Amino acid sequence: MLDRKSETLNTASNHSAQPLVSVENLRVEFDTDDGIVVGVENVSFSIMPGETVCVVGESGSGKSVTSLSLMRLVEFGGGRITKGSLRFNRASGEMMDVVHADTALMQEIRGNEIGMIFQEPMTSLNPVFTIERQLTDGLRIHKGLSQEAARAMALELLKSVRIPEPERRLKQYPHELSGGMRQRVVIAMAMACEPRLLIADEPTTALDVTIQAEILALIDRLKRENGMAVLFITHDMAVVAQMADRVVVMYRGNVVEQGTVDQIFETPREEYTRALLAAVPKLGEMRGKAAPEPMRILGAEPTPPIQPSVAQDLDREVLLNVKNLTTRFPVKGGVLRRTVANVHAVEDVSFSLKVGETLSLVGETGCGKSSCGRSILRLIEAYTGEIWLDGQDIRKLGATELRQARRNMQMIFQDPFASLNPFRRLQDQVAEPLLNFHLTSGRELEDRVAHLFDRVELPRSFLRRYPHELSGGQRQRVAIARAIATNPKLIVADEAVSALDVSVQAQVLNLLMELQADLGLSFLFISHDMAVVERVSHSVGVMYLGRIVELGPRQAVFEDPRHPYTKSLMLAVPIADPRQRRMHENLKFKPVPSPIFPLGHEPERSAYDEVAPGHYVLRPS
Amino acid sequence: MTYILNRLLSIVLTLFLISVITFGVTNILPGDVATMIMGTQSNPAALAGLRESLGLNDPVIMRYGRWIGGLLTGDWGHSLVFKQPIAELLIQKIKASSLIVIMSMVIALACAVPLGVWAAVHRNRWQDTVSSSSALLGISLPDFFWGIVMILLFARTLGWFPSSGFADPAQEFGRALMHAFLPALALGLGLMAHLTRMTRSTMTGILEQEFIRVSRAKGLAERTVVWRYALANAIGPVMTVAGLQVGYLFGSIIVVETLFNYTGMGWLTYQALLNRDVPLIQATVFVIAAVVMLTNLIVDLLYLLVDPRIRLG
Q1: Residue B208 placed within a domain
Q2: What is the nearest CA distance from B227 to chain A, expressed in angstroms?
Q3: Number of folded domains in chain B?
Q4: Domain named ABC transporter: which ranges (chain A) (predicted)?
């Protein structure tokens, strides 16, 4: 944990110094087919040497445009800086205006005095060049190092970002490295010439939470060791709380509010900032509460207020009972494309879900949570196990019976852009399940669809529209309307709110909870977001390497985690509260082992200890 | 290694299928070899005798076995029209055709890659429009049309290149190039148009990738970013498409070689078809198929060199 007092002192002493960057009245325009679109307008803020400034905002707020303007990279995306100045204090002490710099000067500054990290570690590295080449090219241009000297330097850099086996990495290509390692390489690249300013544009958004914690700690350490300033772009308030000295809140291309991190989180002045903060679920804020609670949405109190689904009711009927579910995917290889190994995606998973409740499966990439949800709906075929839904074993159903059973089990997918057919009107897409099961037709069908639109709080004028006319949150509402059309009993929501902005996420979560209370729906909620899961679930299953390692009532799992993996996951989640900083210096989460096993490998059955009533922990094997 | 074995195995299988198909089809064609040799007016008894001695009355399976056995042992039979061993004939013509195919490929790539990159860099601006519309023009018009235009322009009017004929590259290399140039250009124009579009779309996709932004953020010059960092990623897909076009080229040479009276494989195939020279038809089809497949294998192996991601797979 950082020493807050010394940090405040530090910031205070910097006030007398000259700012490293000062952005004044920045305006960026984009030429589009529909004329000129203003990306950002009237943006002003400054960054002191050694300071971390977070620019936070939802999609379309102009935060990335601002950071790309500082590097004058915005021009490559069709943008034009039409007003304002971007003053940068160079290493030589000379003040320059980035807006008026010529190409040669910008190339001298990029990567040398300002380094930049981007969002996607998977695509940030050139796939056809070795790590060494990509680490050394900047050094050779800016510092004029020889190949040998640059290689030695690259090796040092890899060591400083704590990549295991750095010598071997130099000779490797990007695809041979994991996402977390690639992001370390990208950071090493940005740090190569010891820039005075590091711009990090959503550097951890695409990463798992444990890797995110490591990367954030790394950026924080490098910042303190090298005394460089960081401009951190993010949409995630929790990350802001962990990283920022000062915060700039942006909305629709304008700066809404700026101030120190404590000021923004504790005494936000603007309505927008307050709403944004309210919509962020904080891990741990549900402590002592048994039942899920709707998200706070400022200014739009739902009327009537949602009756949160009552606390876990032990007498409630079980809707879904999954026993020893195992799903494997064959790995094909050799000349004849035979199965040479199996990916053990889901390994002996058992749980039950009661009527009107939410069970969340939470875990990191590749833990098998999505495969589990899909196996239950038989979108993929399980290897063994039983899936009892309402007295039927789904796995034993024939094609016709399965089709009928699907009326009772629906799914909401992550990407509302991909899960709606772009060529069909929204009303037709919502009507489809009803027609498919011959539930209703004609006039009645139209009424039913219109009611579904009311139900998910979409205006009826949207009925005849097409998906591209809607925002992400609106599309997800259509997907929800489609899922509830047949009055199903079970809905599998696979990362259903992950792609949405936080304020929209809060609204959609509330809609789901409201539907649950009104219609008695059961949700299997699949998510990587611990804070959201804490908010919405009755029970939680933590998945790791295909197995549920801990299962129980939400309160038990979150307040008294027993399995080491659950504990490390809790430790890694950033909390949207600057008073709870947890920048651990030597975070070292164990990398997840491979789930690929040779043919015929039969792993041990999952055995659990019941540590409290209904709270199960996987017994170590 | 497994990859290469896999590919070789599938090539052998495909060649086998091609041999069956060519043999089958030429067998169904009316008029047999004996009639070709002796003419339609010949004595039926002599014809029957010749059939018997050529083994044409044997079951299809046996004749196919004999033919494929001959192919494998290097005995490709005699051409009925040219009165020459087919193997000898083919080797000579393949050399001639390879020259124009390679030349057209070089011409096409040398123009298409820069043009495509240029269009991608200046996407949706006049440079892109110029490049795209000329590519469209190249694709829309058939190659014999370009052949005629070239004969008129370069041979008739300007007199820079001969309008027809052939020279053996082994003996007079310079003259061989002169003769090959116009057919190669005619062939290459359509190909170039196709590859320009391919390069443009591949490069457009790559230039939008994050690693390109990262390269710019490192302070690399735009020239380096586009021509080295981006192009290194585009060259693989472009090469693969170019390789697939070799098949198309071997189809097109029939028209272009006949037009320029250039005596290569295309011209030979045309003569064989015209005169129902069955053994020659079988052999040329088989050889063209083999050459096309081999080129694709070579291209895919080159791809391995360019793209490390496939190397391990």
Answers
A1: yes
A2: 13
A3: 2
A4: 21-277, 320-570
